[in-house]
Design brief:
Layout (H helix, E strand, L loop, with lengths): L1 H23 L4 H40 L15 H24 L4 E5 L4 E10 L2 E11 L5 E5 L7 H7 L6 H28 L4 E5 L5 E8 L4 E8 L10 E6 L8 H12 L2 H10 L5
Antiparallel strand pairs: 1-2, 2-3, 3-4, 5-6, 6-7, 7-8
Length: 288
């Protein structure tokens, strides 16, 4: 009996101790209220920040339209042009325009572009080069709306510009069209430059025939051993390349073009730019 009563007393005392501790340390409700207030203040600050960003975006849009129309006084809605905010917004609008141009520059594969027709079109520049030397630059002006349409250009007439635009579907893949156009222009520039170098570096080699596309080149040179004139015709039927597709050699000596030695020279003329092939042949003493 004494053991049972002592256990009951101890249990009762334990319950009383827990209740006393709870009364001394009530839940920290005030701390939770402070946390909620802080969250509410942060949300209100974020709301005001978003409002400011929306207003700035609207101002930038108005200024972009104004800049596109080349009328800086329109669309600014009583904004003081000399104010610090106005100058900042103008800089931001210009920065936004530059970002758009850089994005378009990336989309079309790195070609240089400028806005035309008050933002309704673009002018794309295609620069040609050969062996590290920059040559001619060609420009193609393209309207963007309602569909992509070439309006003006200075591409040579023997380059089938409209045909290339149709074949490569300029409406859906303008980069493919520009890439093919660049291949044609650079190949022509390379062939033209090779012809120029032949005339400058090989006075003993006569250019008998060539055309504006530089797709046919007929040369005459002399074989020093036999003192024989050789007529060499280079045909560039692939207008996207600088190397000939066929090389034909003619000579009074019928056996010379069929000899293994001249078969190698024929292959050399097909595998190397003509001015480099002629330099190799001259160094070897095959031509004057």
């Amino acid at each position: 009996m004494e053991g049972l009563s002592s256990k009951g007393v101890l249990s009762h005392l334990s319950v009383l101790a827990v209740q006393t501790k709870r009364r001394r340390n009530p839940p920290q409700q005030s701390t939770r209220v402070k946390e909620l207030k802080a969250e509410a203040e942060a949300l209100m600050m974020r709301r005001e920040q978003l409002k400011a960003e929306i207003q700035t975006h609207k101002s930038l849009q108005r200024m972009r339209l104004s800049m596109d129309k080349q009328c800086s006084h329109e669309g600014e809605e009583e904004m003081d042009e000399d104010s610090e905010n106005s100058q900042l917004l103008q800089l931001m609008a210009k920065h936004s325009q530059l970002k758009d141009l850089l994005y378009a520059h990336h989309l079309i594969g790195g070609y240089d572009i400028i806005n035309t027709s008050l933002g309704k079109g673009v002018c794309v520049s295609v620069t040609t080069a050969y062996e590290g030397v920059y040559l001619d630059t060609y420009n193609v002006e393209i309207d963007l709306k309602p569909v992509l349409r070439i309006t003006r250009h200075n591409v040579p007439p023997f380059i089938p510009l409209n045909e290339l635009a149709e074949q490569n579907n300029i409406q859906t893949n303008i980069k493919a069209f520009l890439d093919v156009l660049s291949q044609h222009l650079n190949a022509h520039a390379g062939r033209k430059q090779q012809l120029k170098l032949v005339k400058e570096r090989f006075p003993s080699v006569d250019v008998m025939e060539s055309n504006v596309l530089c797709s046919i080149l007929v040369l005459m040179f002399t074989v020093p051993r036999q003192k024989t004139a050789v007529l060499c015709t280079l045909n560039y039927s692939d207008h996207t390349r600088c190397l000939p597709t066929t090389v034909h050699i003619q000579c009074e000596d019928k056996d010379l073009p069929e000899s293994p030695e001249w078969k190698k020279k024929q292959s050399l003329l097909m595998e190397m730019p003509v001015h480099k092939a002629l330099m190799t042949m001259k160094t070897m003493g095959d031509i004057l």
